[in-house]
Amino acid sequence: MSIKKSKNSSRENDPYAKREAAQYETPLPSRELILQVLSDQGIPLSTEQLYVLLDIDTSEREIFGKRLNAMEREGQIIRNRKGALCLPEKIHLIPGVVFGHPDGFGFLVPDDKLKHPDDLFLGPREMAQVMHGDRAMVRMAGLDRKGRPEGRIVEVLERANKTLVGRVMRGQGVTIVAAEDKRINQDILIPYHLDMDAKVGQVVVVELTEQPSSHAMPMGKIVQILGNYADSGMEIEIALRKHKLPYEFKPEAIKQAEAYPKTVQPADYKGRIDLRELPLITIDGETARDFDDAVFAEPQGKGWRLVVAIADVSFYVKPGDALDKEAFDRGNSVYFPRRVIPMLPEALSNGLCSLNPDVERLCMVCDMQVDGLGVVKQYKFYPSVMRSKARMTYTKVYEILQNPEGELAQEYTWLMPHLQHLYSVYQLMLKQREKRGAIEFESSETMMIFNDNGKIDKIVPSTRNEAHKLIEECMLAANVCAAEFLMSHEHPALYRIHEGPTPEKLEALRQFMGEFGFGVGGGEKPQAKDYGKLMARIKERPDAQLLQTVMLRSMQQAVYSPDNAGHFGLAYDAYAHFTSPIRRYPDLLIHRAIKAVVNGEKYNAKDWHGLGTHCSMTERRADDATRDVTNWLKCFYMQDKIGEVFEGTVAGVTSFGLFVALDEVYVEGLLHVTELGNDYFVFDKARHEMLGERSGMRYRLGDRLTIKVARVDLETSKMDFTLVSNGGLSNGKSKQVIDDTLSDIPSNQSTAEGESGKKTLRVSKPLVERVVESKPKTTRALEQAKKERSVSNNAKAKQPNAAKSAHQKPSAGKATKPPAKHKQRLKDQKNKGKPKR
Fold first, then answer.
1. Which helix (H) or strand (E) covers residue 241, if one does?
2. Half-sphere exposure of 312 (CA within 13 A, CB side)
3. CA nearest 151: which of 115, 175, 121, 177?
4. Residue ranges of the alpha helices (H) in 489-607?
5. 4 band by pLDDT with thresholds 50, 70 and 90
6. Is the Cβ–Cβ distance between 11 and 55 less than 8 Å?
7. Over the stretch 679-696, which tens digit does the pLDDT of each residue have?
8. I need a labelling partner for 104 at 20 to 30 A (CA). Which of 32, 34, 675, 796 fits?
9. Please, what is the average pLDDT of the chain?
10. What is the Cα–Cα distance from 735 to 710, expressed in whole angstroms?
């Protein structure tokens, strides 16, 4: 079949020609135009035919071939058996990323979720050809036994795993390495002469020499022996490699950072406003080493002047240089217990870009005028030079504010009026926060205390005081000004967006809250105020912890995007990250954009959408890595507590059991469904509960249980619990002690975050694992709670049936009379001869 050129798809009419010209010295036809040509021709095309259709001359063919190869790797095009280029959708193929499961199966997540909203199930036979993270082209092969769309792998587009970390095993005379990432369930075969004499059980790094296929297992060679599994710090070494975190700076980046003078040079002051005499101070945690923000406030007319100075990282890290490439790859600093993987080399992060006391530092300033009601009326951004007057900690500032006549306050007499000014501004802004309707979830964090061997000695709760919140409000104000500044000047930016709940999650939330007699206002698109009003109504309830957790889990995760959608949790129309450029790449981008506007220029970051996706990914990657490390450390900590009894709270409900967060040790483990009692338990996702079919026993999110630690598995970083018969349950039936439940619900950075931009070595427990409470811990206190509940239940029993609300349902674990339709179903089952258990 002959091919014909179309005017619309000619190279001269490429709609993305300007973009290509801006990005490349030798602009080529855009990917969009190539796809358009393939679509218009309606047949598979050879590379030579594309040369003709797109006027590719001989000098361009090599680089054009690289573009076609990249498009093929990303699944935009595919070659058939004759080498002709095809559109995947024309031959019913779906490109995507493979996600493995420890049990051997997996899923393909399609690249285009609009065309293919459902993930495709990949059975063990298909997964034998790929590893977690690989890109593949899949053809839909029908539905599996559970009704899920199932796929067959046609072609592996790109291999994600070149090296991996694992543990050495021996099997039938050969060396085998089992990957630490359990989503990779193929063992790696190591030829005997390539195993570096590694011992069984040692942790090693393997370079893959052969990828898996339908006929062969993957093979590799050991390139590094990290040490023994229980060595101090090994959990971090494993996490770094498992999650592919960049942890070593390239020599060029270190050389560039160390080439800068150790101090700010007078020549660098040019074009900057001198704030060296302004009493700016830093307020951070006791263990912080990099200080990227300083604050100052003073009365001004009927309001206040608030100055937030942020380290001018963009002065030292230029677009495209070695430091910028390192910062982009990392995306953010990663804070492990006892170790930090910084985004920038120490010469900058702890030196030139850290606002250390009594030294000159370059900074970008957000200078705000706040009225008497706490509203920012005016603001301006400008480059400056400053000299921090004090390095303060949250603990010290809180002590001074709480005890202005105390010994510490006397030591910092000169600082007292400045701290009081900041506190006054904070109180005004706090009122605006309440008026705005920002969602205020109570958060609970823990801090690990380590021994000399690098293992946990104990885990203690850590609370945020007024000094934390003061700095948070100052940072929030500067972040909002940054977003509004760039919006008002119509300059592209990377916003921190947090959208409201999806329609499905909103419906589930309304259904759940309806059972307790509450509604969620706001119609199809509720605002933060609607959540806030509901929070206020449930705040004093004994089951507030349960309701708050369900509300929190109805929200979406916060991400970075150039398309501003506002911040639902903080109730801002526009929000961006400006205050932490030392440790977050998006903040560095915002600094560059603001500087460009101030100088009457425009910052061209090229692909803003790609930057948003990448920065969101690096943030999740860091969260996953720190979660792995903390989970392993907690498991190691609990090894010698097998057989001990603890009280805890149900922090998660799944089809296979309950996740229980323990009170005194702040760890979480699984109470498997088989431990709940001799019954068939039905999982209700909307109600966050497990219900026994025969007994009517009900286990819900937030229920109080007493458990025994049965097993601790360091390999999988998991703990298993069993129910016990004292305190929390009776005769194998759990008792819900809702009256004792007054728990703190976490405010996760990646959901509705109260983002101050402050960093800490505290370990914040992930949403899926934490619900930590204040509750009575003694038998006497529990008995008192039971009496109070008994009196309350007797009073409720006297109410007319019609007045009973939905939340007066059977309490957790109490044997209750099954509803009528339950009884009928049980009777039908019995009539069919189904044996009772």
1. helix 234-242
2. 21
3. 121
4. 503-514, 528-538, 544-553, 585-598
5. low
6. yes
7. 899 998 878 889 998 888
8. 675
9. 83
10. 20
pLDDT tens-digit readout, 330-339: 999 999 988 9
**What are 523's two structure tokens?**
């119609």
Strands (E), 301-434: 303-311, 334-336, 339-341, 360-370, 376-387, 391-393
Residue type, 695: S
Side by side, the strands of the sheet bearing 698-700 are 681-684, 689-692, 698-700
Q: How far apart are CA 245 and CA 380, in angstroms?
A: 37
| Cα–Cα nearest to 719, from 711, 731, 707 | 711
- CA gap 265, 629 in Å, rounded: 41
Q: What integer pLDDT is reported at residue 441 of this predicted model?
A: 67
Written as one letter, the residue type at 528 is: A
N- to C-terminal Cα separation, the chain: 70
- How many helices and strands in the chain, by DSSP H and E? 20, 37
272 vs 362: CA distance, rounded Å: 9
**Residue 66 token pair:** 């690289």
**Region class of 789: left (phi > 0), else alpha (psi between -120 and 50), else beta:** alpha
Is residue 37 within 8 Å of 71, Cβ to Cβ? Answer: no
CA atoms in the 13 A half-sphere facing the CB of 432:
19
Residues in the chain: 837
- Assign 777 a pLDDT band (cuts: 50, 70, 90): very low
Cα–Cα distances in angstroms (integers) from residue 547 to residues 663, 688, 818, in the given order: 19, 11, 24
Q: Are 755 and 479 in contact (CB under 8 A)?
A: yes
Q: Which two tokens stand for residue 571?
A: 């109730």
